[in-house]
Amino acid sequence: MIRKHFAGYAATALALAVSAQAFAGTVTTDGADIVIKTKGGLEVGTTDKEFSFKLGGRLQADYSRFDGFYTKNGNNGDGAYFRRAYLELGGTVYKDWKYQINYDMSHNSGNADNGYFDEASFSYTGFSPVTLKFGRFDPDFGLEKATSSKWVTATERTSAYELADWINTHQDGMGAQVGGVVANMAYLDAGVYAKDADDTDGDSVKQFNFRGVFAPLNTDGNVLHVGVDYAYRDLDDVAFDSRIRPRLGMRGIATNGGNDAGDNGNRATFGGATLSPAGSYKDDSTWGAEFAYAFGPFSAQAEYLKRKLKADADAYEDIKADGYYGQLAYTITGESRVYKLDGAKFDTIKPANKEIGAWEVFYRYDHIKVDDPNVVVATATRDVGDTKASTNTIGVNWYANEAVKVSLDYVHVSTDGIRNANGDDDGNGVVTRLQYVF
């Protein structure tokens, strides 16, 4: 007999026992019955929803090939790598407590010193509709970031996020967040985070995030979504890497989890410096805006981001950056993108026809601009003044079933004020992805 309050902890052992020894007869408990599900990973839970356990994961195998600005000499380069290889463990304890642990075996999240965790968090839902979340997880900023990497439309999220890569990554720190749904038409959350960087006294960098979304239409295929975002971090007396180094939709120029373009990959510095000494900058703030509309199989979305890195010494000037993207997508097999108000995000496309799956086509335009007045001398690869980049992406996604997704993107980039060592200010690339989730 298994007592009720041990059911959640014994779930894995029980599932294996039931699978391996089905001939032993019926398994019973003196508490709630236990349900075992194997569709989409292994999930075990009590029927009263007091305890649950789910083991899942995602595997994204990418191959990209690129030329021009994407490589230092302009010749063809490529990368074959695991973009993500997550093992995910989550569940419920005593109904109101949730936990989630995602470990990245591709080593694109975290590091050797702090562990390769994409997430290690627990949440309390007893104050419904408000949820309290604690631990290591990415701050909430932007629609594309809120949408899981499994279900974003393009293989890589917008280049605008790369203008301020700290806004929605945990950077091996810890955080606390409060958020929830309001009146079935809005979502709000706010959080505070201690990042893995210290000032001269050993006090960690503190970051504050806010996101607010109004979505009066929030059902699948019928979405109207507008939102605002804000992120702030205190950099007083902090030495840090201030470089703005976008990959511009081509992760294969520099990545982990396999092979990339190596020394010939051109991850150019649009602004900032490898090391900004303590006392050079006071704080860093970023504003954002979100929009999305979906009607049946059609969806449109856009985001805008504006950043200011405020100088704190006479020898330095403020660094400013802004960027945006616009995206149009259409599911030619007729399915709608799933939308979830809790989290204010898009989710998967579920194929209606199990034989042909669901087919989606899309187009996205990204534009970024960086203004770094600290650059006062031109080089062979960078002019004095603003640096800009625009990317055009067209692609197709095949949702073969609810577990397998195949993607193909073509990306063209053009730049202004910055170029590779060969003098190229544009480039092309192709990205393919085979994704399996469970």
TrEMBL record:
Q: Which Pfam families match?
A: Porin_O_P (PF07396)
- Name the UniProt key words of this record, in alphabetical order: Signal
Q: Which InterPro entries match?
A: Porin_dom_sf, Porin_O/P
What is the annotated signal peptide range for this record? 1-24
- Does Signal show up as a keyword for this record? yes
Which SUPFAM superfamilies does UniProt cross-reference here?
A: Porins
Q: What's this protein's name?
A: Porin
Please report the organism this UniProt entry assigns to the protein. Answer: Pseudomonas nicosulfuronedens
